[in-house]
Every structure is written in C-alpha cells, then in structure tokens.
Design goal:
8 helices; 6-stranded mixed β-sheet; 37% helix; alpha/beta; two-stranded antiparallel sheet
C-alpha cells in the first residue's frame, strides 16, 4: 500500500494533487503546528500581468497553534472572499473552463466554516471530486498513534499503523528523510518530482507552479488527469 502525508494547503499547485493521485491513502495533518509564510493559507495566481497571492486571512493566535486551532478572520467572510472572487473573474473570464471552475470556487469559498483546517479539508475534497481523484483521505488526529512523535519518526509510525509498504514524499523532502532509515522499518521511501507541465495560459510566456485554480481554468479534467501522471519517482 502506498501512502503520502502532507499539511493542508489553500488550492495548492498540481504536484500536491499528483501526490494524492499516486497513493492509495493520503493522510492530511491537522494536529501539527501551523507554519507562517508557507502555503497553508495562501497561494499564487496571475493577476493584471503579474503573480499575486490569494490569501485566507487568519485571526491572531499563538505562534505555536496547531493547524486545527487556527480560525479564519471575519474579514475574509465579510469582504475578502468577494474581492478574491471578483479578481479571479476579471482575470480568468476568457479561460476555456472559466464557467465550471468559477462555479466550483463559489461553492468552496462561500463555505462559512471558520476553522482553517475544516475549510481547507472541504476545499480539497471538492477539488478532488472535480478531478475524479478517489484516493482515501485520512485526518491525522483520527489515528491512534503516539501523538508526541515528531517529523520522520511520526511519518514512520503512521506508515506502520496503516500498513504502508511505500511512503511517497515530494522531492523537496530529499534532504529531510533517509531511505536507509525507512528501510529499517520495512518501508520503501520514494520522492515524487513533477515533470515540466506546460499548457496554454493565453499569455505570451508560460508561468509554472501556480495554484491548481490556474490549471483547472485552462484544462479539462481529462487533460489534468494526464498531467497528474506526469511525474517521476526516485
């Protein structure tokens, strides 16, 4: 059985969905510490000729809060999500799949759930449904494991608990995890590297690694499913 484990992200890039598609079970962390300046509550799109962030504004809380403890600011529900939708509509209304994706975004962003993890988990489930990704999603806090474990030890514990023989991590973890250490636990560690994916963005120059929103605006689910297989494991 193949397994991957990741934090939740706000409409992440296509490599995140490649990882989900490549495994049998995908564990999404809710009981780990929130990290600032990452991708948990923001991502990138192309607006007005430049790359800009779309962001879920959060309420102030402890720097050591878990993702599951974070709350979305009332400003997002009051003003920011409408502004975000208007901006997406203005910049992507000529994209070939605008109508379908804008409807999906309305459905996701108009969810009034204030808990950050629950909001992101709902967005992931609905995006997976659109892309016909059927991988089982498991919330980490639901697992009966030693919650005090950290990083590599926690990953190995989850693998053993779920009976995973293969653990797949994004290529960015190449310097973090040791194949030999995983092998000691009878787990094969592989790293997923997204191949170069290029599609027509109605621009002069292609911009890679934007939010999955950009990919969905310009490509059909069938084409995206081909992209989801366009990676190498090492």
């Amino acid at each position: 059985m193949r397994l991957a484990i990741m934090q939740p992200y706000f409409f992440p890039y296509i490599g995140y969905y490649q990882l989900i598609k490549a495994v049998d079970k995908f564990v999404i962390y809710d009981n780990v510490e929130y990290t600032k300046k990452g991708w948990i509550n923001r991502n990138r799109l192309f607006f007005n000729g430049k790359i800009e962030y779309i962001t879920l504004n959060l309420k102030r809380s402890s720097d050591f809060s878990l993702i599951s403890e974070k709350e979305i600011s009332y400003l997002f529900f009051d003003k920011e999500r409408l502004k975000m939708l208007k901006k997406i509509k203005y910049n992507y209304n000529n994209a070939p799949f605008f109508n379908e994706i804008f409807k999906l975004l309305n459905d996701i962003l108009n969810n009034n759930e204030t808990n950050l993890f629950k909001f992101l988990n709902n967005a992931l489930i609905k995006t997976n449904e659109y892309l016909d990704i059927k991988t089982e999603i498991i919330v980490s806090s639901k697992l009966d494991i030693d919650k005090s474990l950290k990083r590599e030890e926690k990953v190995k514990e989850i693998c053993n608990h779920l009976g995973a023989m293969i653990y797949i991590n994004p290529i960015g973890g190449l310097q973090l995890y040791s194949k030999e250490e995983f092998k000691k636990n009878n787990i094969e560690l592989l790293f997923l590297k997204t191949n170069r994916i290029v599609y027509d963005q109605l621009r002069f120059e292609f911009i890679p690694n934007l939010s999955i929103i950009d990919v969905m605006m310009f490509n059909s689910p069938a084409v995206i499913n081909d992209y989801l297989k366009d990676f190498t494991l090492q």
